[in-house]
Amino acid sequence: MRNFLIFYVSLSSCLVFFESCKQKTTDSKLVYEVDNNYHFPYSILEADERYDLKNELREISGLAYFNDHSLLCVNDEKGTIYKFSLKKKEITKKYEFDRSGDYEGIEVVNDQVFVLRSDGNVFTVDHMKKKDILSVKTNTKLNAGNDTEGLGYDSKSNSLLIACKGKPATNNKFKGKRAIYKFSLDSNKLSDLPAFLIDQKEIRNILKFDGYTSFAVTLLEHINPSEGDVTFQPSAVAVHPITNNLYVLGSVGKLLLVLNPEGDILAVVKLKRKLFRQPEGICFSPDGTMFISNEGKGRAANIYQFSYQN
Fold first, then answer.
1. What is the pTM of this model?
2. Sign of the CA dihedral with 211 first, then 212, 213, and 217 last
């Protein structure tokens, strides 16, 4: 018990140290545009709208665009899909699709809804017409060690995008990377290799981590190897409907990455802690409007809306 307490205190202290160092390093600049021809098309400090959520969505973990008036949400506790009205600013419907579990992502594809669980299982739900509905569970071959948190959709390949917060593979490959896989809806199979690999070292170089911050990252990795490199851990992923760029959100690290369709980093955006307490979900409307959801962390959860500045 004593060893556990020492480990817990050490880990907590390192996390605080890491985040404080990182905040000092990046506060002076929020958007790091890597490609000179790319401009980040959102004012990340100026949301057009904020939607405060009630207690049942305090643990909101996934977000998907449903139609002009509604978003779909899941939380990381219940097997329930919540329909949130942007006009009424409240939950208007609930659909129970499975038992309680750690549900982390949701995506709408045509007339079906897909929900991702943190152990790599994907649930296929037909468009919600009843209060209580059944769903079909598919094992993607990813597991709890991969800690699958992000779910998006790539229309060009008709595939779901599954982002791993944890290990990038089921073996020891791709150390120092974060992985995003494609799950084909045509073959119902997961790609053997990641479709995208995000290099943690490249992110540190872009953000120009100082020696203290780099030391904290290394120390945390040694203290808790199961977490690996904590520079960036994906919590959500979405494809931009106009540019086809990939937006990858990370609650750990408080970052938003923009990748081109080939997987090259175009920009790294630092998310202010005061606004984004725990960013866990991202989605877009067809006109490029961006929505980002935040878990409550002891307070009310919320969803921010940002207009697309083409």
1. 0.89
2. positive
